[in-house]
Design brief:
- This protein has about 350 residues and is α/β, with parallel strands linked by helices.
- The chain has two domains: about 190 residues, Isopropylmalate Dehydrogenase; about 130 residues, Isopropylmalate Dehydrogenase (3-Layer(aba) Sandwich), CATH 3.40.718.
- The chain contains twelve helices and twelve strands.
- Helix 6 packs across helix 7, helix 8 runs parallel beside helix 9 and helix 11 crosses helix 12.
- The radius of gyration is 20 Å and the shape is globular.
- Nicotinamide-adenine-dinucleotide binds next to helix 4.
């Protein structure tokens, strides 16, 4: 078993009958999205038989249909066995006009539409990349943490208001929303859960703390629980990342902390994520965005996309051996010196793909 695969995420994996040949909806999205999803399909095809159905998403869907996600795309995702997404967004669709469609609306709509309340982001730097991180090797060595981010509640989904001179975003959480994400976190923990909030200021955080504390004493007394304020957590993530086992936090804090945590692995181009939780399929995507600054140059690092495909095999399709095969191939390619530009090397997307395929 791969070192990456030894946490128990069963609390969040879904259990539904799967077709003989699993159907995967591919959402390439924008920017480097199409450049990294095609190699991921190559890698998957080298391992197993899957049926792929591709749909426009994000900016590409706005251009074609006027909306970031059509009803047809959402329905295709609902009836798939898993959804593999690259990234959305770009300057072409950047707007501050609330009446205009934005690529991220597709992402939020898909998460909500599939009931994906748990976003899991494992952060484990590989020894081969210790010196690629902007943090000192002795700080990051041995880090092996999981960020569990609440994905369908909080300020990203609250009511929004806007006039010419004022704006507001409402942040709400219910006991049920907090309890179900905390249960995923405790289920995945080996020894400790760090619950991150801003309980000294926010009412939602005070409820968060209370609910997590109650669940802990009721169902998970053997796991250590600590409460950390988000500003302190941001500092500790770079000063002593080894301290963390599982970090559980609300939607916005998790968004920010997991990007910060990505730098421990050397580059945001290395970090995969899984979004799970509902009755339906899971969504698997790299943590990074559409990187419009390097789109079309062949410099995109496809490894986070490959590792997201591995998470899909493990947590979406219960294909553990195939997941391990991808992870080991990535590890070995890096150990043999593969470095894309973001990792300080010169390998192109195509060269990185070939290096990984060679080790499958
Ligand atoms: P980004 O993650 O796209 O890029 C940040 C930096 O990291 C850039 O310098 C980029 O070149 C680099 N980078 C990212 N992924 C890389 C990869 N695979 N290989 C090599 N380098 C990589 O974040 P951003 O620049 O803040 O956002 C760009 C667009 O992406 C925006 O429109 C944003 O809204 C969107 N975005 C989408 C998602 C998503 O689809 N889940 C997430 C974050 C941002």
């Amino acid at each position: 078993m791969s070192a990456r695969g030894d946490r128990d995420w069963d609390a969040a994996t879904y259990d539904r009958p799967q077709a003989m040949t699993p159907k995967i909806v591919l959402l390439p999205g924008d920017g480097i999205g199409p450049e990294i999803i095609a190699p991921a399909v190559e890698v998957l095809n080298a391992l197993t038989t899957l049926e792929f159905e591709e749909h426009r998403f994000g900016g590409a869907s706005i251009d074609a249909h006027g909306t970031a996600m059509t009803d047809e795309t959402l329905e295709a995702c609902r009836t798939a066995d898993a959804v593999l997404l690259a990234a959305v967004g770009g300057p072409k669709w950047d707007t501050t006009d609330p009446a205009q469609p934005r690529p991220e609306q597709g992402l939020l709509g898909l998460r909500k539409g599939l009931g994906l309340y748990a976003n899991l982001r494992p952060v484990k730097p590989l020894p081969a990349l210790y010196d690629s991180s902007p943090l000192k090797r002795e700080r990051i060595e041995g880090t092996d943490l999981l960020v569990v981010r609440e994905l369908t509640g909080g300020i990203y989904f609250g009511e929004k208001t806007r006039t010419a001179d004022s704006a507001s975003d409402l942040c709400t959480y219910t006991r049920e929303e907090i309890e179900r994400i905390a249960r995923v976190a405790f289920g995945a923990a080996r020894s400790r859960v760090t619950s991150v909030d801003k309980a000294n200021v926010l009412e939602t955080s005070r409820l968060w703390r209370e609910v997590v504390r109650e669940l802990h004493s009721r169902e998970f007394p053997n796991i250590e629980l600590e409460h950390t304020l988000v500003d302190n957590a941001a500092m500790q993530l770079v000063s002593s990342p080894r301290h963390f086992d599982v970090i559980v936090t609300e939607n916005m804090f998790g968004d920010i902390l997991s990007d910060e945590a990505a730098m421990i692995t050397g580059s945001i181009g290395m970090l995969p994520s899984a979004s799970l939780g509902g009755e339906g399929p899971g969504l698997f995507e790299p943590v990074h965005g559409s990187a419009p600054d390097i789109a079309g140059t062949g410099a995109a690092n496809p490894l986070a996309m490959f590792l997201s495909a591995a998470l899909m095999l493990r947590h979406g399709l219960a294909l553990e051996a195939e997941a391990v095969a991808i992870e080991s191939a990535v590890d070995r390619a890096l150990a043999e010196g593969l470095r894309t530009r973001d990792l300080g090397g010169g390998a192109s997307t195509g060269e990185a793909t070939r290096a990984v395929l060679q080790h499958l």
